[in-house]
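Reading a protein record of the kind used here takes only a little practice. The integers have meaning only within a learned vocabulary of local backbone shapes. With that in mind, consider the following protein and its fold in token form:
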Amino acid sequence: MSTPRSGNTWLRHLISAAYGLSETCTHELNESDWQELPDRHAVQIHHGPEPSFLAHLRAHHARPLTIARHPLDVLVSILQFAINEPETSRWLAGRGGDESILYGAMPRSRAFVEYATGPRAKALLAVTRDWWIRPDVIRVRYEEVVAGPVTGLAPLVAAVGPPAEPFGAASNFTLDRLRSTSVNNHFWQGRPGLWRELIPAAEAREIAAAHAETFATLGYTCAPDPDLDPAAADRNWVRLGGASLAAGLRRASVGHAAQVATYQTAIMNYKTEVADLREAVAVREAELARLRLQVAEAARFLQFDNVARRAARVARLLRRVRDFFPKNRTEKAFDRLIEVS
């Protein structure tokens, strides 16, 4: 339960792999969702500690965990992610607005500063802050987990016990590995303190002042790079954005080539299946022709069989007629008819 872009997804993967948990990422949990959750399960959700939510946690014996990240790093991450993921509008069910103002913005632009000091950013940053002050919450810091998962996740181990697998063994969930598989730049830079290369001092202090409570509660300070001028900040953003765009295009090209290969394989399989079906149809048609001949022969046999049956019935009838009348001179005639029949 944390602010978006705080390292939630990466943390969920690390914990689930180490503790052998199934996992879910969702924007909301309704009553039926709570009832269907497995016992050993990690849920990632951006949700504040509202009373009804806390009641569900208690009812299902769930341990809340939140991760803190420097607010300015969070906001920069939101800026780049919003361009690639339209579903950011579903964060907190749209509380405080959405991220549409960020499309095409840069970290030192007025559009970004207005977003970062506005109601939407305040609502998002408040999620981790409001969980952080609760005594029943497991608290970890993104910067410490990046520096070393074993040390950074020590509060989790202290609260629930050691994992079945060491955190360091979760090599499939390093940021580099996850970044290579992401289709929406979900795992972008991941470097703590990146904001100091992108937000000049004046803009950084203006944003930090709007979130003084969050900075104080989470224990972060605003210490911008005094030598970062606006032009350098813009160049850094363009450089990082260009690298991300190039990486995204490469992934798309590789993905496209893989799709083409998949489609070609599917076409070949389809052609093989069509040939097999045609062969099977030919076999069935030959069998059908043989069956038709057998039916015709059976029909002819039944026709002759019916004639024989009718002759037998006529013979029986003639005998009954003969037996009905007294024996006389016509007896021989009946016998001849019976013989003929």
Notes: The two ends are 100 Å apart (CA to CA).
